[in-house]
Design a protein that fits this description.
- The chain is α+β, with helices and mostly antiparallel strands.
- It has 24 helices and 22 strands.
- Helix 23 links the parallel strand 21 and strand 22.
- It is globular.
Length: 657
């Protein structure tokens, strides 16, 4: 079999298995077998890039980041629906329809709470996907939509042009896992699956969208060249045959049947793996829809019945404080168990101190609670008239409940963090950062190995990495003799790293890789830096008052001092090899753009900084020079607009001589 035939065969097989797994929930092969097929296709496409299709299954992990979203004018408007909030209002809708159409059939469908999109196919191939926008013009999110495995990339026996409308959503299970991870890492939580789905679909980097495991339910046929249908249900059945993941529906003849179907959707909503906020009632007959028409805002042939959120009262029995991997203290209310939205709720998020203060939540309070987005239990308000006489305002602790270190509030937000360099709650993230590429660059210490080292009590601080027993490491899962030898060699080699890497590895707030280089080259040694006060630090280029205060506080922490002394005893280098002597670029800011052929960006940045200059990622009035390679884009245009001098690579090299 030649490469072209094998690529076509693998593509067809993988598309079929995507359909079986993501649409039908009935996989025929094991994940390992699927992965092997996908890997083989990746290899073939790498060897024969001219044969790689933009619709290949390999593209579903996300391609290159997008500079911006292009505007798309919808061929068929994506209308919104009129909401009704009671059975009486739904009956009024039915009466209005029956005045024109005495004999009418409806479909009743779940109203998925996600992001509406249009998918366009030409000659059976997916060519474009766009958000709803204002209904007339949306945004082109084609590359992100390609990462959704339940969207077919090709259709068999399709019309010349086909447009369908669907709702992109984040499954509840994925949403819960994503928020758990964000909470652990000290990031803001998504309020509900819809926000998470919308944010994910509008990521400029499709790889991020791919990681979010979005899904879609198709609920309308917008356009199909050369094919005639008589009913909405017929179009949905047709789309299901074309392997789309289609919204479930029920056909109803009478007002009573519609009411029963709407209540049935409500009763079953908590068993679904996607969030819904209502049920959509639509006239099924397409010719009747045509006759009924639309108002300036809504179609007259459909209505969205919105379910009211379930709210219950309960009592705050305790407030617990958790410490995430980034050191953020997150308060949680332990409440008297209450049945809410299909599950028993025993706790509710309190977000942060600002939330607690604004709501005035106290231990012993009776509170009204609901599930935000039907997922996260949240406190709506305190029932003040039921407050116990001895209830007092709640304040988060001033020291970490895990390690006892002082806590500090983010200067740019509501988060309160533990400042401990050896805090057990942050240890996985602390060590993962310490060994990362731009920090101490210790190869072989992935998150799984780091977690094993911590679980087995072999490390309690980054400094403990330099005291590991090779025999104990070799006995761990996934670690053999050679892997252990390689790891120990990498740890030993990291002792020679420049001080700048160590400073970044410490994870001091506001001190990134660039600040680490500036501090190392300015002070020359860790001991001199530790002696510096805030006044001395603010005299250093790019070090402001907030960063200076953060550095002084970090070095004053007993945990930081303990870790530093352990690193000193292990023989880790505390000096800088990059003390700036030649200051030819002092006070200058360079921006590198386009494809550079004579040097890498990292090499150029290092050279600029070695001469006292600064490398920036964006062009502004403060930019001194822009170094432009091939295919330079928006940064070059902006430089020209601002009158910033532009250098070729050759001209830049001459400045380095």
């Amino acid at each position: 079999m030649n490469p072209r035939e094998e690529i076509e065969q693998l593509t067809k097989q993988l598309e079929r298995h995507n359909y079986l797994y993501y649409v039908m929930d009935s996989p025929e092969i094991a994940d390992y077998e699927y992965d092997q097929m996908l890997r083989r296709l990746e290899t073939l496409e790498a060897e024969h890039p001219e044969l790689a299709s933009p619709l290949s299954p390999t593209r579903r992990v996300g391609g290159a980041a997008l500079p911006q979203f292009e505007k798309v004018e919808h061929a068929v408007p994506l209308e919104s629906l009129q909401d009704v909030f009671s059975m009486e209002e739904l009956a009024e809708f039915d009466q209005r329809v029956r005045e024109s159409m005495p004999q009418v059939e409806y479909t009743v469908e779940p109203k998925v709470d996600g992001l509406s999109v249009a998918l366009e196919y030409v000659d059976g191939k997916f060519v474009r996907g766009a958000t709803r926008g204002d209904g007339l013009v949306g945004e082109d999110v084609t590359e992100n939509l390609k990462t959704i495995r339940s969207i077919p990339m090709t259709l068999e026996d399709a019309p010349q042009r086909l447009i369908v409308r669907g709702e992109v959503f984040m499954p509840k299970s994925v949403f819960e896992a994503l928020n758990a991870k964000r909470e652990e890492e000290g990031e803001n939580l998504f309020a509900n699956p819809r926000n998470a789905a919308a944010g994910s679909l509008r990521q400029l980097d499709p790889k991020i969208a791919a990681q979010r495991q979005l899904d879609i339910l198709v609920f309308n046929l917008q356009l199909a060249d050369g094919i005639t249908f008589t009913s909405h249900s017929e179009t949905l059945d047709y789309l299901r045959e074309k392997r789309f993941k289609v919204i479930p529906y029920t056909c109803c003849q009478t007002e009573k049947e519609v009411e029963t179907a709407v209540r049935a959707v409500d009763e079953g909503r908590y068993g679904l793996n996607y969030d819904i906020d209502g049920a959509v009632v639509k006239v099924n007959d397409l010719s009747q829809r045509q006759t009924l028409g639309s108002t300036a805002k809504f179609p007259r042939w459909a209505a969205a019945y919105k379910y009211p959120p379930e709210i219950k009262e309960t009592v705050v029995e305790e407030i617990l404080v958790q410490v995430g991997r980034t050191g953020v203290l997150t308060p949680k209310a332990v409440v008297r168990p209450v049945r809410l939205a299909g599950t028993t709720v025993t706790n509710a998020t309190l977000h942060n101190q600002d939330f607690i203060t604004a709501k005035d939540v106290r231990i012993g309070d009776t509170v009204r609670i609901r599930k935000a987005g039907e997922i996260i239990p949240e406190i709506l308000e305190v029932v003040k008239e039921k407050r116990p006489a001895d209830a007092v305002p709640y304040l988060l602790p001033e020291s970490c409940p895990v390690c006892g270190s002082p806590v500090e509030r983010d200067e740019d937000g509501a988060a309160i963090r533990c400042t401990g360099a050896e805090c057990p709650a942050q240890l996985v993230r602390t060590i993962s950062h310490f060994v990362s590429r731009d920090a101490m660059d210790i190869d072989g210490l992935g998150s799984a190995i780091v977690e094993q080292l911590i679980q087995q009590g072999m490390v309690h601080s980054p400094a403990d990495l330099y005291y590991l027993d090779p025999e104990q490491v070799e006995a761990m899962d996934r670690m053999g003799k050679q892997s252990t030898a390689n790891l120990m060699a990498a740890i030993e080699k990291s002792k020679e790293n420049d001080l700048s890497r160590l400073l970044f590895a410490f994870g001091i707030r506001q001190v990134g890789a660039k600040a680490g280089k500036v501090l190392a080259s300015t002070f020359g040694s860790l001991d001199r830096l530790m002696e510096a006060d805030e006044a001395a630090l603010t005299e250093v280029r790019d070090i402001g008052a907030i960063t200076a205060e953060s550095i002084v506080r970090w070095f004053a922490n007993p945990q930081s001092r303990h870790m530093i002394e352990r690193l000193r005893e292990a023989g880790v280098n505390f000096t800088s090899k990059a003390v700036v002597v030649d200051q030819r670029f002092s006070g200058m800011t360079f921006v590198l753009t386009g494809a550079l052929t004579l040097f890498t960006r990292d090499a150029a940045t290092e050279k600029i900084e070695s001469f006292g200059g600064k490398a920036s990622g964006s062009v502004s009035k403060k930019t001194t020079y822009v170094v432009a390679g091939e295919n330079a884009g928006s940064k070059l245009r902006k430089a020209n607009e601002l009158g910033i001098p532009v250098l070729t690579e050759e001209e830049f090299l001459k400045m380095l001589e």
